[in-house]
Write a structure and sequence with these properties.
By secondary structure, this protein is mainly alpha-helical. It contains nine helices and two strands.
Length: 208
C-alpha cells in the first residue's frame, strides 16, 4: 500500500514537456520506489483495468491516460516480460487515440481470421511431427500480430495493410536437457523447419 501510494501521489505525465526524458525518469522512479515487484504488478493490473473501462471517461481524460499508458506502462510490462498485458495496453491505446485506424485494422483481421487459422494449423502440422520424431519436447504457438504492431509496421514502412505480409507469427518452444545444449538444439530445430519451408533470405532475421 505504501509503495502504491507513493506512485499515485507522484507527478502526472505532462505531454507538453519532453516526453522521452519524463517517461524515463518516471519509469526509474517507479522501479526505485518499489522494493517489492508486487507494487508494479498491482499498478499494471490497475492500469489495465482503467484502460478496459476508459470509454466512460471524458475525452481529455481518456487521452491523458492513453498516452501515459503507451509511454510508461506498456514499456514497463514489456520489461517485466508481461507480453500479453503489454499487447493489450498498446491495442487499447490505439483504440482510444486513433479509433478509426484501430477499427479498420480489426475489421480486416476479422475477415481473414478463419483463413489465417487454417493456414497456421497446416503450417504447424508437419514440422511438429518431425520435431517430436527427432526427440524434442516441443510446443508450437501460432498467434496473430497485434493491431498496434501492424499499425506500427504500416507507419514505418509507409504501406497499406495489404502490404504487411507477417500478420501472424509461429513460435516454437523446445525443452533442452542441459542449458549448454539450448543453442545447438534451437539450430537443429531450425534446420528441421527449413526441410519443409525455404527461408526468404531478403527478410530473414535470427530470432533464436
Amino acid at each position: 500500500v505504501d509503495g502504491l501510494t507513493k506512485i499515485q501521489s507522484s507527478k502526472k505525465l505532462d505531454l507538453k514537456l519532453g516526453v522521452s526524458e519524463q517517461t524515463e525518469n518516471f519509469k526509474k522512479m517507479i522501479l526505485t520506489l518499489s522494493d517489492d515487484v508486487r507494487v508494479i504488478l498491482v499498478k499494471l493490473a490497475d492500469r489495465l483495468h482503467n484502460m478496459r473501462t476508459l470509454g466512460s471517461m471524458e475525452l481529455h481524460k481518456r487521452l491523458q491516460i492513453a498516452y501515459e499508458t503507451i509511454y510508461i506502462y506498456a514499456p514497463l510490462a514489456h520489461r517485466l516480460g508481461l507480453y500479453k498485458i503489454k499487447t493489450e495496453l498498446e491495442d487499447l491505446h490505439l483504440k482510444y487515440t486513433r479509433n478509426d485506424v484501430h477499427k479498420n485494422i480489426a475489421d480486416k483481421l476479422s475477415k481473414t481470421r478463419e483463413e489465417r487459422s487454417r493456414f497456421v494449423k497446416e503450417f504447424i502440422s508437419p514440422i511438429k511431427k518431425t520435431i517430436e520424431e527427432a526427440g524434442f519436447t516441443v510446443k508450437i504457438f501460432g498467434r496473430p500480430k497485434s493491431i498496434y504492431s501492424i499499425w506500427n509496421k504500416m507507419n514505418k514502412q509507409n504501406v497499406e495493410f495489404e502490404k504487411i505480409y507477417d500478420l501472424f507469427a509461429i513460435r516454437i518452444v523446445i525443452e533442452s536437457e542441459r542449458r549448454e545444449d539450448e543453442k545447438s538444439d534451437c539450430w537443429r530445430v531450425y534446420s528441421l523447419v527449413t526441410d519443409f519451408y525455404q527461408p526468404n533470405i531478403d527478410r530473414l532475421r535470427d530470432w533464436i
